């Protein structure tokens, strides 16, 4: 009779558990999560995030977490949560990181400063969430207050991108198709 060593059985059980978790995660991600389309700039000395949106959508709230180091793992810890945008810029996806004045309701006040490794999510009116986890650079492209969105070049995971290019990245994920 063939018996497998205890270590091999344990590894097989861990792999099976990991595959089950992965399949549950994949099923969950089909519910409107959009990845890798956020852009970062500095406007008037403050970090700003741009989340492109579908034409019929608007930001309803934001959630920001610390993102664990991918090599060491860990938990996503909530840092800032707010909803009810008070400006058109925020409703269109452009918001200052941690500025409570942009929202009517703050459920978790922001920290005094944000770490560089963040997970940022913009929740929209159509149950979509535009977000990503990444380490933002300490040195962002800088612009004065009042610079039009079309003139901003954002730092992204894939290098410098305009708002139009980020919009194309969103649409390439078929995020704006009804029901998907």
UniProtKB/TrEMBL annotation:
Region (Disordered): 125-147, 159-180
Basic and acidic residues composition-biased segments: 125-139
Record key words, sorted: Signal
Signal peptide: 1-26
Protein name: Uncharacterized protein
Origin species: Plantactinospora mayteni
